[in-house]
Amino acid sequence: MDIYTRYKSLRQRTEDICRPLAIEDYVVQPIVDVSPPKWHLGHTTWFFETFILTPHVQGYQPFNPDYNYVFNSYYETIGNRVIRTDRGNLSRPTVDDIYRYRQHVDEAMLKILSAPLEPEVSDLIVLGIHHEEQHQELLYTDIKYILGHNPLFPAYDVTYQPPTLKSTSTNDFIRIKEGLYEIGFKGDGFCFDNELGRHKVYLNEFEISNRLVSNAEYLEFINDDGYSDFRHWHAEGWDWVRNEKITAPLYWHFIDNSWYHYTFRGLEPIDLEASVRHVSYFEAYAYAAWKGLRLPTEFEWEVAAPNFTWGENWEWTESAYLPYPGFKKAPGAIGEYNGKFMVNQKVLRGASAITSPGHSRLTYRNFFQTNLRWQFTGIRLAK
Ligand SMILES: [Fe+2]
């Protein structure tokens, strides 16, 4: 697909994700990690305006210069911004204003995309496309959180069907031989800077499950009082369980002696066959410990992944999110994209059912803090 068509369909898809929303759904921010949908719509647009149109298109007039303050996420280089916890306190710009902002930026973008581009500009546009794809997934997870924490449990879309993956019926462990393996991105296509610095890693022989832990299996952990036994948990995880009164994955509700969970279609009985989703790293670790097993490292995952189906849930790994050898930040604001987050987070590998099509790859490194579980996160065991 050429970059012009890719840009157009990207921008359309973002708006399609928001189509089932009521105006009020666009505005709220129930917790700090969840941004209002209208903020995602504005921020992804701001990215193209700030990094492509303003510096590279002569005479470009920003839609509204004050939007820089509202839609800058975390770029210190770009200046002051609304603090993250205040994103849901802004009734203006309105949703209509933001859709007009998108249109203004799209017109200017499509104009430059119709002519030959300098490689530097074209690389930035490709980064902007991948950035908006990341926010498409965040739109899904943030919308789910907003609706799933409303006492009425409104459906996002009663007909919603997740993309189906080739499922693995048998539960087997795949054995991978010890040896020296190469880790990191290689090739001509796009990757994020955190995947670069391809390097060798020595792995001991290990075994990894060919499928994710199911809801039925996770229920055994719950029914065995896994959430009440400190022995399975890290100290921090145990504090988290006790302070937050955690007794099940996010979105699970025990009603009339049965487990239900909130899905995009509303509240539904738990599907026992489906893989468990919306667990934190703490829970993934505790489950594995209870089983007498462990989580794979991100290197083991990357080496083994061609042998199993992935893409249903992001998979917690035992690896801290660290720079690869030789990691370099790009100069300027773009250098703030990944590098400054390489502390106190765990790597997740794979992709989820709501990851934008074609967005992820074998070397892709997602990352979140150990207590977070509003993303589509699951568990794969290793030994
Ligand atoms: Fe962003």
UniProtKB/TrEMBL annotation:
- Per the record's keyword annotation, is Oxidoreductase included, yes or no? yes
Any idea which UniProt keywords this protein has? Iron, Oxidoreductase
DinB-like domain location is 8-138
Residues folding into a coiled coil are none
Q: Name one Pfam family in it.
A: DinB_2
Known pathway: Amino-acid biosynthesis; ergothioneine biosynthesis
- Which residues are in the Sulfatase-modifying factor enzyme-like domain? 170-305
InterPro entries attached here? CTDL_fold (IPR016187), DinB-like (IPR024775), EgtB (IPR017806), Sulfatase_Mod_Factor_Kinase (IPR051043), SUMF_dom (IPR005532), SUMF_sf (IPR042095)
Among NCBIfam families, the record links this protein to: egtB_TIGR03440
User: Under which name does UniProt file this protein?
Assistant: Ergothioneine biosynthesis protein EgtB
Q: Which gene encodes it?
A: egtB
